[in-house]
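Why do we bother with a discrete structure alphabet at all? Because it lets us treat a fold like text: something you can write down, compare, and reason about line by line. To make this less abstract, here is a complete entry for CDP-4-dehydro-6-deoxyglucose reductase. Read it the way you would read a sentence in a foreign language you are learning: slowly, and without expecting to understand everything at once.
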Amino acid sequence: MSYRVSLIESDVAFDVEPHETVLAAALRAAVNLPHDCKSGTCGTCRFKLIDGAVDYAEPPMGLEPEEAAAGIALACQARPLSDIVAEAEVMPSLLPDPIRCQSRIVSLEKLAADVVHLKLALVEGIDLAYLPGQHINIVLEDGSTRSFSLASRPSGDGTIDLHVRQIPGGVFTEGRLATLAAGDALDVELPLGSFFLRDDFRPLVMVATGTGLAPIKSIIEALMDDPAPPPVALYWGMRTEADLYLHDEILSWAEKLEDFRYVPVLSRPGEGWTGRRGYVQDAVVEDIDDIEEHAIYLCGSPGMISSAKSLFLGRGASVNHIYTDSFLFQHTRAP
């Protein structure tokens, strides 16, 4: 027996067959719901149940019990138990198609003790079109991939910037990266992912930990070309002052955006630190009373994203206006 899924605010509906998940049925019906990992871990495909019920073969890792109790479900794993009325974002169907091509290293530069700025140039003739916030895959010799967020807005010159955090034991970030030099070739797949700036009227809250700053940097730089950008608040969580590898550059963004606020938050600051302390998500709710009126972009550690989602939803944030990019699989998703 099939069940009907109806999406409020979009007048979209589709049928889900007994063997299908909500996401699989949506994609079969050419309804492009947000998604990424398709394994129930990243949480990108969250939607809100207004009426009806779903079940899972096993509890998905990317869904907190508090979220489930509040009616949040993951489309990539959820199977309907009845007809459903749901609140979910429907994305544009015409996203840039990913391609595989060769790139060459333009430069490698240390930004911090464990962060490398890697600039790549794609081979000539490639028409590079991507949405600020998306990521690429670097293809290794054995065919496996490592994913890195694009840290630069589309430039038109065929170059892209990556912020690569060197992870102890990382096959690419600690092993292969150390052997690379300017001029070396790397195979890449791009663009990928559904983390990108939505066309929305809401003020933006950008929350990052670590090199989760990279895709947010791409988005904010793109907003600098907007004649009427929305207000932007950037909260960047790090451990120590030395980890704030783009601190001075970020301070200069206020000169290019009319309403921009930058709040670095340190969990292990030195004695001389006079800024915010603690966890970055806590700083957000301390500052912003009307979180339900904002579009929220989260990128960084799975712990931060899980805690931030629960905290913000508990304060009334719209599930359809929280966008996430979690570094859950460090072997494949380590921007």
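What the structure line is telling us, in plain words: The chain is about 15% helix and 30% strand. Confidence is low (pLDDT under 50) at residues 329-335.
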